[in-house]
Write a structure and sequence with these properties.
10 helices; two-stranded antiparallel sheet; mainly alpha
């Protein structure tokens, strides 16, 4: 008898299937909640106590000679020349990093998921993983900044007597590494990694659009004279590390039971001499 169902069955077998990921709501809720509370508390309430009052990494020798490396000296050329310009870059970097980029990344993730035919719960899980990755990256950055105590570029050029009179003295020595850049790259790389794990159509768009957008945050921070080039490069690397590692280590693909949600297909063929049954599972 003709095997009329074969083309359809073959198409079903060859069609890409979306992957279920390991999401433990209790574990992930605790990591995100505790990490978020820790970051907010240290940033909003405890920064004046935890941040070093004087620089530990000052880019100056004991006799006061400027020892800033050539790469960071060159990168400082991106800083705005006027105080109003630096303030504008600082404002734009805050709005972009804490509003525009997160909304854009989550919105793009929703469009990729729905465009690939994923159920709504997949997007809820994706958003949880992305936010969790960003929170872990932010907590790690906070710990490093408080421990390292690198003097910010705009503080570095002030006279010693002026440094205590900046707008936020507790923020003077938190240059390394760039938290804004780390956050931006953690959001983008987490979204890209989750999209690849899921098998979403056109997941390359997250990388193609998101990575330049994340890099622009670092440029803005340099324009605001808040960070050196090395702060931004390390921030990008650290954010990317957490953005890739958290999804891969905590949220790998679930193994599916044989015949359960695996796109099982069968076909039957035979003649007067016998019959055979074959399939893919």
């Amino acid at each position: 008898m003709p095997d009329a169902a074969l083309p359809h069955a073959q198409q079903a077998t060859d069609a890409p299937r979306l992957q279920a990921l390991d999401v433990n709501w209790t574990r992930d809720g605790l990591i995100t909640g505790v990490g978020g509370a820790l970051w907010i508390t240290t940033e909003a309430l405890l920064k004046s106590r935890l941040a070093p009052s004087t620089c530990r990494w000052c880019d100056r020798s004991p006799d006061g000679t400027d020892t800033l490396n050539a790469v960071d000296r060159w990168g400082r050329g991106m800083a705005a020349r006027t105080e109003s310009g630096r303030h504008a870059w600082n404002t734009w970097s805050n709005v972009s990093d804490f509003v525009v980029l997160p909304v854009g990344v989550l919105g793009a993730q929703y469009l990729l998921a729905s465009g690939s035919g994923a159920p709504v719960r997949y997007f809820a899980e994706d958003a949880t993983i992305i936010i969790e990755s960003a929170v872990v990256a932010a907590v790690a950055n906070q710990a490093v900044k408080f421990a390292v105590g690198r003097e910010r570029p705009f503080v570095h050029v002030l006279e010693e007597g002026q440094k205590a009179h900046t707008e936020k003295p507790s923020d003077n020595n938190l240059s390394f590494y760039s938290g804004h850049t780390s956050l931006a790259f953690s959001l983008v790389t987490a979204a890209g990694t989750v999209s690849e794990l899921r098998g979403y159509d056109k997941s390359w768009l997250i990388w193609a659009v998101g990575l330049p957008a994340a890099a622009s945050i670092g440029v803005m921070r340099m324009g605001a004279d808040k960070h050196y080039l090395s702060d931004v490069v390390v921030g990008a690397a650290a954010g990317s590390l957490f953005g890739v590692a958290v999804p891969l280590l905590l949220h790998g693909r679930q193994t599916q039971a044989q015949g359960a949600g695996t796109g099982m297909s069968m076909r039957m063929s035979g003649n007067l001499g016998g019959m055979s049954l074959s399939g893919t599972f």
